Amino acid sequence: MRANTAAIGHTAGARGPRLINADAVAAYRRPGARGTAFALADGVGDDPRAARAAQLAAAAAVRADTDDPAEAVLAAQKAVLTDPDAADCVLVVALPDGNDYRIGWVGDARVYAAIGNELRQVTTDQTLANHFRARGVTPNPRMEHVVVVSVRTTTAPEIGVTRVPAPEFLVLASDGVHGRVGDDVILQALRYASDPARALVDAATVAGTTDNATALVVQCLPGRTGETTVAIAA
């Protein structure tokens, strides 16, 4: 079995101009698991049912008894579909595997990985805009915000999956953050901010985000074992 890896997680969020903060984050280390799983969900809509879906999905994804991120997303789907008070959401989940992470996603929440001065977006937005781009058609800007796959609607083949080898940092972000801050801002926050998650949310707010803005930053500690520290702030 590959060794457990320690990590430090920071998360921050802002409601922004919305009525409800329908973003949610979760972190959980299952007994015997090879580290802590992380998830971020973004509810579709601006009401309590959207928030409920995000909370259920994030919690179910990190607590799923699996090392397969697609199965973790399907566990989130089951939790949402069986709750009459839940609407829909998008989701990213990061499951540890030694020094690596396995990533699963549906919708347009994102995961970035950083090593040194290199930042890479490791997820692909499942939006109507990207659907048309893949077919050689220039999309309308409004299509950037229309998801074609969600927790409630996805099928197993539609779930995005990838593996990130030994990142120094992982950044999980809702579109209220990544829609307003660029790669340079993310790297500056990771390198210089004492609380990079809060720095990213504040930067998105200053840039005029019109959505909930949530970031979860995981600092990976290769070669070190132990419990993960996660600081969750509103």
From TrEMBL:
PROSITE patterns: PPM_2 (PS51746). InterPro entries: PPM-type-like_dom_sf, PPM-type_phosphatase-like_dom. Residues 8-220 form the PPM-type phosphatase domain. It comes from the Bacteria. Gene3D superfamilies: PPM-type phosphatase domain. This is Protein phosphatase. It comes from Labedaea rhizosphaerae.
